[in-house]
Amino acid sequence: MSARKLAMITFRGLQLAFAALVAVAVLLDPALPWWCVVLPLVLAHALITVVNRWNGGAPDAPGRAPAPVEVAPPVTGRWSALNSPADRTPSHGVHAYGQTFAIDLVAEPEPGARPGFRLLWPLARRARAFPAFGAPLLAVADGTVVRAADGRRDHLSRTSLPALLYLMVVEGSVREMAGVRHLVGNHLVLELDDGTHALYAHVQRGSFTVREGERVRAGQVVARCGNSGNSTEPHVHFQLMDGPDPDTARGVPFTWRGIGVPRNGEIVETPSPATSPA
């Protein structure tokens, strides 16, 4: 077991210890010293800080990102970029889980087609209310499927203030303690022919068209966009990594052929791929 994997397991164990001590303090022993309760949480945050420093460096030159890998876009149609590495890195706030250069895409087939954020009501919407739900996901290059994890439900959106707070304070914390598979939900990892690994997260349950070990071609439909895992609404979360396991991988920068890396809020329009699914 690698040091990074052991560190992530320890990180989740410390979070579980904190939750258990809070329960003990509330239900069984109110006199439990406060420092005893918060110590596992402090250690967990110190450990994840170390992990972020590990994962922030390039494999061949710590502290300096490698050259971007050019691949095709993972979607077709009209999409808007969010949490883009063109605006900041790490794009999602942390280097952990190989997401230093990750990007999110939401479908914008036309202005107003995507339901917006609401302060209080509706609290949540069904996944099918969003145009991204069910959109095809495309192989960004020739490669091999090394992970196709299915079975997690596509939940309601978290696009109101109460629902977002629930996701951040309760749901997200529980998923993080449970492990990276619960964070990314249904997901696909392709090992591209150059050795880079492409991760597609929050995939629609039951939508995979490929299996582990199967060869894929660039432009082939491999799954569909969903809302599983730690997701506020149906969207595409895409990232390149230097290994197949997000717990231990470093992020690898990408550039989409003919597009580059879109900035936050930038509209991306991609043509239909030349390769169709079998």
Automatic annotation (TrEMBL):
InterPro entries: Cell_wall_metabolism_enzyme, Dup_hybrid_motif, M23ase_b-sheet_dom. Gene3D superfamilies: Glucose Permease (Domain IIA) (2.70.70.10). Its EC number is 3.4.24.-. It comes from the Bacteria. Keywords: Hydrolase. Transmembrane segments: none annotated. GO terms for molecular function: hydrolase activity. It is an enzyme of class 3 (hydrolase). Residues 171-242 form the M23ase beta-sheet core domain. This is M23 family metallopeptidase. The lineage of its organism: Bacteria, Bacillati, Actinomycetota, Actinomycetes, Kitasatosporales.
